[in-house]
Amino acid sequence: MQLSHQNSVPFLKSLTTCLNRIIADGFTEDFKLENVRLTALQHNRQYTPAQIQVINSFRFEGFSNPHDNAILYLIETFDGLKGTLIDTFDVTSPRPIVNFIGEVEKTQRKVV
What pTM did the predictor assign? Predict the structure, then answer.
């Protein structure tokens, strides 16, 4: 996403404001990656890559530290839960969430 677009959509200026807007739009579940499954924390359910869909994602970079990055994923499960998964990372850190999302994308390509 380009900076000029972020200026025209104020809620995309920070992770916090974007997250607040997305929650207001009905993405209320908090997801966490545990081992190779995605866990819905409020409903205590687990999902495989084949059981979820990534609706959208937003990337944020820290203002004071370019290595302070986050990606916010909007997730919908096969049984109707809608929520968010946040991947905060440093450029040198392992990326298990990216690997999981890659598996989701592979699964979706097979279905199409």
Answer: 0.81
